[in-house]
Amino acid sequence: MDRLLVDTNIVLDLLAERKEFIEEAQQLFTLSDKSEVKLYVSSLTFVTVFYILSQKLKLSNARKLIRKFKVLVEVLSIDDKIIDLSLESDFKDFEDAIQYHTAIENEINIIITRNLKDFKTSKIPVLTAKEYIAIRKWSLGND
């Protein structure tokens, strides 16, 4: 079973219902709901997503939405080692460095993001949700 770290932008695509990206995000999270993949997010993602949603929704609604979402993912901790590796990395964006090193330290197979260019030096595959779903369908022989 694939172990995927889902970047913050994909989570926001789903929860904030971003029109141009929601379909792929829904397909990805449906795979998790069906126990066909294991999805992970860093604890940083929960903080960021809650902050953004709370700007658009009532706090109680943002909490309810995040509570429902949490059953689809496993939350990975950020520790001293991940922070140190991120600070020393060649990533321009510190948040992306944290996501990347969280994935590496937790032996994640693939990172799912819309910001492919920010992960140019990744040692593990980095795909968009759309790319991952297409590859998965092809490898399973589904059109």
Characterization of the model:
The chain has helices at residues 8-15, 22-33, 43-56, 59-70, 80-88, 94-105, 129-140, and strands at 3-6, 38-42, 74-76, 110-112, 126-127. It has 143 residues and is of the alpha/beta class. The protein has a single domain, classed as 5'-nuclease (Rossmann fold, 3-Layer(aba) Sandwich), CATH 3.40.50.1010. It has a five-stranded parallel β-sheet. Helix 3 packs antiparallel against helix 4.
How many strands, what sense, and barrel or not for the largest sheet?
5 strands, parallel
**Which descriptor suits the 3D outline?**
globular
Question: How many separate helices?
Answer: 7
* Number of separate structural domains: 1
Bin the strand percentage: 5-15%
Total strands: the figure is 5
**Element-level helix/strand string:** EHHEHHEHHEEH
- The name of the CATH topology is Rossmann fold
Mean pLDDT: 94
The H-level CATH homologous superfamily, spelled out, is 5'-nuclease
The gyration radius over C-alpha positions equals 15 Å
Terminal residue distance: 20 Å
Structural class: alpha/beta
> CATH top level?
Alpha Beta
What is the percent of helical residues? 55-70%
In the sheet with the most strands, the strands line up as 3-2-1-4-5
* CATH architectural arrangement: 3-Layer(aba) Sandwich
The low-confidence parts are none
